[in-house]
Amino acid sequence: MVTCAGQATTPMVAAVNDAVGVSYAEIVSSISSKSAGPGTRANIDEFTVTTRTALEKLGGADKAKVIIVLNPAEPPILMRNTIYLRVDNPDMEKITKAAFDCMKTVQSYVPGYRFLLEPIIQDDIVTMMVEVEGLGDYLPVYSGNLDIITAAAVNIADKKAQLLIGGAK
User: Fold this and answer.
1) What distance in Å separates the CA atoms of residue 42 and residue 124, rounded to the nearest whole number?
2) Cβ 121 vs Cβ 90: under 8 Å
3) Is 165 exposed, middle or buried (0-12, 13-18, 19+ CB in 10 A)?
4) Please, are residues 60 and 17 in contact by the beta-carbon 8 Å criterion?
């Protein structure tokens, strides 16, 4: 599994890459400092490297950069991920369709995943922002960064279980 920012942004980068090609991806992930535990705080460098690697190897970006912000705001903020992409073929119709299809797929296992800023384009730069609100069942709603990790793991486990019992993929 990859970081919370990787779970929130890699599928979107991959979707746009499949549609029009992505030569560069840069994400800024902002999470509430209250939802960042000691593991996250002790491993910021690993977080940025792991997420960058996911954007390149899984998302398909030729190059990538990752920034994380631990925001101490009160009340705590929801997880927000700003995604900047330099695309090879700036076709807004293809980009928008790919982004919305991706959002629907992620929402199937992370209900609080949504656009805060729908894709916009200027020249060959696409900008969008996704927000992740937690379910609030066990953790506060501002802990979307923790919920997306759990939801992604459960989604993969469900798919693996279906394969093992011979069900649908």
Assistant:
1) 36
2) yes
3) exposed
4) yes
Q: Using one digit for the tens of pLDDT, what is the confidence trace for 67-120? A: 999 999 999 999 999 999 999 999 999 999 999 999 999 999 999 999 999 999
Nearest to 92 by CA among 64, 117, 123: 123
Catalytic residue annotation: 4
Which one, of 7, 105, 20, 93, lies nearest residue 51 by Cα?
7
Q: Which domains does the chain have, with CATH numbers?
A: 4-164 (3.30.360.10)
Q: What are 24-34's pLDDT values in tens digits?
A: 999 999 999 99
User: Which strand ranges, in their side-by-side order, compose the sheet holding 79-87?
Assistant: 63-71, 22-32, 79-87, 125-132, 113-122
